[in-house]
Amino acid sequence: MAAIVFCNSYSPLAASKWINPTLPTKASTFLTTPKYNSHKHVQCQLQNGQVGKGRPFSLKECAISIILTAELITGIPSLDAYAANPPLPDLSVLISGPPIKDPGALLRYALPINNKAVREVQKPLEDISESLKIAGVKALDSVERNVRQASRALKQGKTLIISGLAEAKKDRGAELLDKLEVGMEELQQIVEDRNRDAVAPKQKELLQYVGDVEEDMVDGFPYEVPEEYRNMPLLKGRAAVDMKVKVKDNPNLEECVFRIVLDGYNAPVTAGNFVDLVQRHFYDGMEIQRADGFVVQTGDPDGPAEGFIDPSTEKTRTIPLEIMVDGEKAPVYEATLEELGLYKAQTKLPFNAFGTMAMAREEFENNSASSQIFWLLKESELTPSNANILDGRYAVFGYVTENEDFLADVKVGDVIESIKLVSGLDNLVNPSYKIAASYVGVLLSGKIRHSSPIGLLLKTEVS
């Protein structure tokens, strides 16, 4: 969707708790979701040539906002202090960095491994996507070069790849590499047959093998979560969920299932919190609460609460801001990279892909995230890779890897019929939903009054 963007003193991350995916979470948070008037859900429509009202920037501020793409959509001024005197990183940082936009590639590069041989197989297979941008069968000449390069890298580096596998996973990894070899021969035949339409599906299959091999290189969880968060629900590894959305008022799309891969290697607290809520069926039946062309957001429960109320404490459960910096072994907590002065740092899970999933929070409360989540509808012109104020300020913990393009068709009021965990439950530790189940047993036994606050909360969870 093309859009004209003017310099405004509004940041999408700051507007009304905007259903700011708790990208903040309360009033004035980028992704938080404020209670507006009689209805708490807000839908902002950015249309061609339409911009919201806001305080005009000075020439200096306008230049800064263009560089940072901080002021994207109309709305309520919420980052005026930041916009008036922002810490400006080196321009070279803003225009550097590989613009990897494919969610699968981002997830592969985010794995805590260091095996050059497998990366040399991965890269040319990923480059096939660029080759296919060439019109017609001419693209196949470039694809053939990609396949030959990947095949050569696999033959030369197979021993090194196998040596990099975790000991308990070597047999499975070797089997996957055999399948990869056969698959590349099949892809070579597809190219020779000039069957362009068959290239992308085979490429996807081969990259899945590569990703599985790379995951088999991870031997256990690579670091210790800080003690103060160690008893929270943690996802120590990867997990995948299917989110089924019932789409209203769209004759071309009645429902859609989005596959989402959650990355606990780089965001164990954030991903663990989400998986725990999924297992509680917290999001089932919840409406989409924001869909404005910039993000899709949900997670604000009915009633006065703006996050998940833990029945065991009767208080809102919040999690710390959690960001993994590229090159570091463990995430940083409770502070944005800007606050830490890490202007040149790159995040391991960047806002590069359409369908990047992150936590909303209150703008000025780093540790206020609870249940509100959002997906970025990335437009490179508005949110350039490594050049926006999302990276390093909000906790990314996954990517939509299937049907992500359909997120643009989701509207406010569409219903999440269910979010179901399809893999990775074994990676969840300290799951509080199991504790909730034990409370339910006590409730049903009559030891807790149904009319008590905790009883009412537990009955809600059961239903």
From TrEMBL:
The keyword Transmembrane does not apply. One of its GO terms (molecular function) is peptidyl-prolyl cis-trans isomerase activity. Its EC number is 5.2.1.8. PROSITE patterns: CSA_PPIASE_2. Keywords: Isomerase, Rotamase, Thylakoid. CDD domains: cyclophilin_TLP40_like (cd01924). Residues 260-442 form the PPIase cyclophilin-type domain. InterPro entries: Cyclophilin-like_dom_sf, Cyclophilin-type_PPIase_dom, CYP38_PsbQ-like, E_coli_cyclophilin_A-like, PsbQ-like_dom_sf. The keyword Thylakoid applies. It comes from the Eukaryota. This is peptidylprolyl isomerase. It comes from Gossypium australe. The lineage of its organism: Eukaryota, Viridiplantae, Streptophyta, Embryophyta, Tracheophyta.
